[in-house]
HDIG domain-containing protein
Amino acid sequence: MEPSSKLPSREAALALLAQYNSNRNLFNHMLACEAVMGALARRFGADEARWRLAGLLHDIDYDQTKDDPLRHSQVGADILAEAGYPNDVVYAVRVHNDAHGLPRMSMMDKALYAVDPLTGLIVAGALIKKEKDVRLIDTEFLLKRFKEKGFARGARRDQIEACSEIGLSLDDFISIGLAAMQAIAADLGIAGK
């Protein structure tokens, strides 16, 4: 694995992302994934910069592929490969969409797969509160909502529960994700009115 010093900078990643993304909500989703992936990397003693890049760039192609789910993440991975991103980051982006049937092999692959819908669940939890502030919800609240089929329907529960593949309970996984997103609540637009 290449050391972080050989990784493209976050500024370069943001510039690349800006070329392909014009949707503020999607950008906020990618910022949330970046934050949660960073928190997980710290938890596991992994390369935080590398994991954060995978989270930040995982949906780089979504504006182009939203109507063609079978192309989503393939196009994004190709964009990143062409831009010189490391193979493991490119692969994590490619396999976060399970429509391709590719195995998630590394901890980073498995973490990104589970993190992607978790951020949507957390945002939905914040938005149903009158204050619209993620800092006012807790893990217990989200665990209760997790069991409600009608709540945050797009946040695939089976995918979130894949956190077991990285050795985390659902409770721990939600707690880590929630804390990471609470730390950047203002950047995500969910810091209340």
Summary: The mean pLDDT is 95. The chain has one domain: 9-188. The CA atoms of residues 117 and 155 lie 5 Å apart. The radius of gyration is 16 Å.
